[in-house]
Design brief:
Helix content: 25-40%
Largest sheet: 7 strands, mixed
Mean pLDDT: 89
Structural class: alpha/beta
Strand order of the largest sheet: 3-2-1-4-5-7-6
Oligomer: single chain
Number of helices: 8
Length: 199
Amino acid sequence: MISDAPTFLTQFARHPLATGAVLPSGPTLARDITAAVPRAGHPLVVELGPGTGVFTRAIQRRLAGRGHHLAVELNPTFATGLTRRHPAVEVVRADAAALGKLLAERRLASADVVVSGLPWAAFPAGRQRAILDAVVGALNAGGVFTTFAYRHALPTRPARRFHRLLASVFDEVTVGRTVWANLPPALVYHCRRPLRREL
């Protein structure tokens, strides 16, 4: 995390709303948010907004060479760094809202797990909905979506709106323990059984 801090801080200064934090997440938060990645089989794991790759490393450790790991990163600096550091990961520079198209282009089946490092509280309502609709559409029926929120931001309107949105598109949403060691402290949302919207 220390070696990634300067890059992360620079990108935050240039793109504060897209980056969402001044420091990358810590290893304890990475462990909690990637706990849904299976340690057996050949799962398809999608990572949204991997940044400098803290969650990427944790996912790769859990996969141990199995399955397929697709990382979707919009920031070109982060995407280039991820490609260099993690050759086993398919890194694509794209918008998370285009996830369905990205999977279709690669002829990939629906995802078993989607792990998100995106700054949801920084997004307006329409942006939150567009990305979450893409996530729900990309997951299989038993799929799991995990993301995190900063503890201090929970009372804000965007954070409360996002929590309600999660409850409207997943059958089960559980909130993990607060990771006080993270800077800033954060917690993980574990969302299971996506609900398809009627057309």
